[in-house]
Amino acid sequence: xxxxxxxxxxxxxxxxxxxxxxxxxxxxxxxxxxxxxxxxxxxxxxxxxxxxxxxxxxxxxxxxxxxxxxxxxxxxxxxxxxxxxxxxxxxxxxxxxxxxxxxxxxxxxxxxxxxxxxxxxxxxxxxxxxxxxxxxxxxxxxxxxxxxxxxxxxxxxxxxxxxxxxxxxxxxxxxxxxxxxxxxxxxxxxxxxxxxxxxxxxxxxxxxxxxxxxxxxxxxxxxxxxxxxxxxxxxxxxxxxxxxxxxxxxxxxxxxxxxxxxxxxxxxxxxxxxxxxxxxxxxxxxxxxxxxxxxxxxxxxxxxxxxxxxxxxxxxxxxxxxxxxxxxxxxxxxxxxxxxxxxxxxxxxxxxxxxxxxxxxxxxxxxxxxxxxxxxxxxxxxxxxxxxxxxxxxxxxxxxxxxxxxxxxxxxxxxxxxxxxxxxxxxxxxxxxxxxxxxxxxxxxxxxxxxxxxxxxxxxxxxxxxxxxxxxxxxxxxxxxxxxxxxxxxxxxxxxxxxxxxxxxxxxxxxxxxxxxxxxxxxxxxxxxxxxxxxxxxxxxxxxxxxxxxxxxxxxxxxxxxxxxxxxxxxxxxxxxxxxxxxxxxxxxxxxxxxxxxxxxxxxxxxxxxxxxx
Length: 614
Fold this sequence. Notes:
The model is unreliable at about 605-614 (pLDDT under 50). The protein starts with 6 loop residues before the first strand and ends with a helix. The protein has helices at about 50-65, 70-85, 135-140, 190-195, 200-205, 210-225, 250-300, 305-320, 325-350, 355-365, 375-405, 405-425, 425-475, 480-500, 500-540, 545-560, 565-580, 585-614; strands at about 5-15, 25-30, 35-40, 95-105, 105-115, 115-120, 125-130, 170-175, 175-180, 185-190, 235-245. It is α+β, with helices and mostly antiparallel strands and about 625 residues long. A hairpin with a 2-residue loop joins strand 6 (about 115-120) and strand 7 (about 125-130). Helix content is about 65%, strand content about 10%. It has 18 helices and 11 strands.
């Protein structure tokens, strides 16, 4: 009965762009108890109006299946449309802005996702207007942008809520508002409001007749008269509420309800107070949860992850308490992102660059589940971490070269690390590079001092070894081959310590020469001793000719050996041989001569005695 006893008139226009693609859509249905009006603006122009039309059809179907003006019903219609776009059989991701207006012919309520707009005019004045869910509208709310600049602001299509949103879909649902006779509503897409401002729109409705089509034509004429160069698809719809439904039984119903309510009111008063308190508390929790969740996003956008973590934890706790699974899932994804970024920042501060890089890469992957927020900050941190790691890679390369005593190349790497750190304003890396340089110069100086000392010690050792070698040469030249061998052995030990291979080879040659001389002397001594034995044997047999021959051979050998004592001994023996006597014969002769002298003395004594006696 409501529809038959009310008068609502609807008119609209929807035009395609220059390529004859109409990515907008408008539809409505008026049932006996409720009516629904839907306008949608396809965000992706390449999908041939599929997004907008699918959104309108889905909402109207959901409305017809379960018509209602309740908030939950409108939220359910919009979520059904969002899910339809997400699961549509399309190669591209479908997205759209939408506004749905539902009425029971007495009151109205609208729901919105995106930047399609709703306006309600009463007696020529703008009574109610929707707010875009865009970054530009937020700037207007924060008084950082003038309202008249909104239609041209570059962020007017940067939406934080729209159909086709995978995560964090939270459409706006208005409060109910009562309609009055002669009210007029307008639904419009960005193709209209970007070129026809609210002032012109208000004038059009102030001058409106009873025919909504005339108002539609008037607004379209205003739009086209400006001849916008980049005009694309546009849709404008208006509903004239000429007569709102009046319930004939309203007074009787009110009286009856009062009579019934009086006894019940007393009983329910206390319960109502309790329920109101509980409801108020729950509402406060919901508002606090939503505010904390939005604060989380805002803090991430300004790179304040510590505060973002606090707000996200509060939103997560409230979502668990309120059993809001959607907010809880979103908050958990945001919390994982925040924790990864904080861990990366802490590791970067502590100089744990590999850990920092791993955490930032993990955070970058997490942004896919957190609406891509914080991606610029994470990429910046990844770049910074990579550059810091490059500084320490240069220092490490310098350390390796310094350990291999390649000081010039090491210095070059340290200087490169210092220059890169200075360019990055990386004070810690610059200080570490300078410390490495100072240590390099200290090590280089110590090595030079050590080389000087080693050279001095080497020169002294060389001088000592050369002196011992000279003594060996002197002994060798005198025929003291044993002494020469001793000196050469000492010199060999010294040159071995000096690792002077040339001198080692020379000393070994001299040692071999001394050994050869000693071996030759030993052979000559053995040969001389043999001649001496043969000579003595022949001498003992009184074969003086043979004995002389062997003595002469032995004498030559001992003369060659420079053994003067042996030469003298052999000379005496040869003198005896020249006399033709042996030593025994000589001794015997000397003995006989002594005896004769004794006998002669005795005879003389006897004669002397006889003469005396006589």
